Amino acid sequence: MELPDTLRARVDALLVGRPIAQLAEASGRLTRRYRAETRDGALHLNDERAAAAYVAARLPATFAAVHAALQTLAQAMPDLAPASLLDAGAGPGTALWAAAEVFSTLEAAELLEASPAIRAVGERLAEEAFAFRPTWRAADLLADPTGEPADLVTVSYVLDELPPSRIGPLCEALWSRTRRVMLVVEPGTPAGWRRVLAVRDRLLAQGARVAAPCPHEAACPIREPDWCHFARRVARSRIHLRTKGAEVPFEDEKFSYVALVREAPSGRVSRVLAPPRGGSGKVQLKLCRPDGSAGEALVTRREGERFRRARRVEWGDGF
Ligand SMILES: C[S@@+](CC[C@H](N)C(=O)[O-])C[C@H]1O[C@@H](n2cnc3c(N)ncnc32)[C@H](O)[C@@H]1O
What we know:
The protein is α/β, with parallel strands linked by helices. It contains ten helices and twelve strands. The protein folds into two domains: 257 residues, Rossmann fold (3-Layer(aba) Sandwich), CATH 3.40.50; 42 residues, no CATH class. The two termini are 22 Å apart. The model has no long low-confidence stretch (mean pLDDT 95). The site of S-adenosylmethionine has 23 residues, from helix 4, helix 5 and strand 2.
């Protein structure tokens, strides 16, 4: 997965002239804080250096994750045509760029973000990039999760930065502003998945239904130490490589997510929960099924069209 050309060009322009050593140092600091899920009251992206490092080293991966989740959502709900977006904890506007790629119907966006440094970066990246003018708001989600109701509400890679006791009430407040879909994306770690599950449970109790990835509203059938997550391969640009001191020109971003909707989609299909394993004349799929169960399915050549479809599906697809 590559960033859209316009965004790629704007990211490169933003980083031009920045010393690599500075980006690498700030990126290393960010990684340590994210890995430790540090919650010390300070925003991770609290200065210009951290904001630049985020754009260089994390934006491509979080973009890929949100984009993949939105694409799956669009497949599950082909009639979904959101006109408005509310993005909470917007960072550099990642979800706005992903939503605009997936939904050409978008004509308004409100982005809530507490850090002036990353907000400034996001505003600069998005300047005159869309047919509409996004509204950026300085907002502390913990103090006042304001925002106008929107067709699509996104919260991506934000919950891991909040005190756990505040996540439920915040998500309920955002759900109350959701006209059609609320998408929560978190890192694809066991802890990220648990947070996604907690939001899922809490909003199901408020009458929400699930559009993706689960094809049902039953209790999650996955049992620890397993966890539900997906992955996207992300191309690393030259500056991305140098910021991370990496040599491999790609990375695999793992993410967990849930898309909650007001009305359940029709025609639900199973979700592929792991990379399919092929053998001669057979494909082994790990599936989450509309009846609320999960498990392995062996599809053999004898099943004709079903086998041909099984050979084409990828991790995260419907089957
Ligand atoms: C990891 S970044 C994710 C940014 C973007 N959503 C993405 O997916 O790339 C988390 C963002 O949430 C913001 N954030 C964290 N706590 C916040 C709060 N209490 N109020 C508003 N924004 C907050 C941070 O400043 C940061 O920009």
